[in-house]
Amino acid sequence: MADKSSTQDKTTTAADAPFNAMTQLQEAGLGSMMGMGTAWVEAISDMSAEVASFVAERIKEDVKTQHEVLHCNNAADLQHIQAQFIQKAMDQYRAETGKLVEMGTKAFGTKQD
What pLDDT is recorded for position 7? Predict the structure, then answer.
C-alpha cells in the first residue's frame, strides 16, 4: 500500500498567491516583512491617498480646460487656454513631486541634504 503522505496532491489556489509571494521575497533575502510596522504602512497609505487626490484634481483641470476650449472664439484664445493649462500642470506636478518626496523621506526615515 502506498504512503498517503507522499501521494497527496499539493494544489495551490488563488488565495495562496499572496502568501507564496511573501515567502519568495523572504527566501530572496528580504527577511521577515512583518517588522515593517504600522507607521510605515500608514505612510504608504497616505502617499497612495495623496496620489489619488492629485489625479482627481488633474482630471478636474482637464475637464475645465476642455470646457474652455469648446467655448473659445478664436485661435488666440485657444493658444492662451493651452498655455495656461500647460503652465498649471507643470506647477502642480512640480509641487506634487515635492510632496511625495517629502512624504517618502519621512516614511523611509532617510535624511535629505
Answer: 47
Name the stretches of the chain with pLDDT < 70: 1-15, 18-19, 22, 25-26, 28-36, 110-113
**Running DSSP on this structure, what letter comes out for residue 109?**
T
**Backbone phi, psi, residue 95, to 5°:** -65, -40
> In which residue are the cell numbers 499572496 written?
18
Cα–Cα separations (whole angstroms), residue 86 to 8, 28, 55, 56, 99: 63, 44, 15, 17, 20
What pLDDT is attached to residue 47? 92
Torsion from C-alpha of 13, 15, 19, 25, nearest 10 degrees: 80
- Nearest C-alpha neighbor of 33 from the set 23, 42, 43: 23
For the entire predicted model, the pTM comes to: 0.61
- Contact assessment for residue 33 and residue 21, using Cβ atoms and an 8 Å cutoff: no
Q: Any idea which residue has 500647460 for its cell?
A: 86
Check residue 40 and give its pLDDT: 77
Where along the chain do its domains lie?
37-106
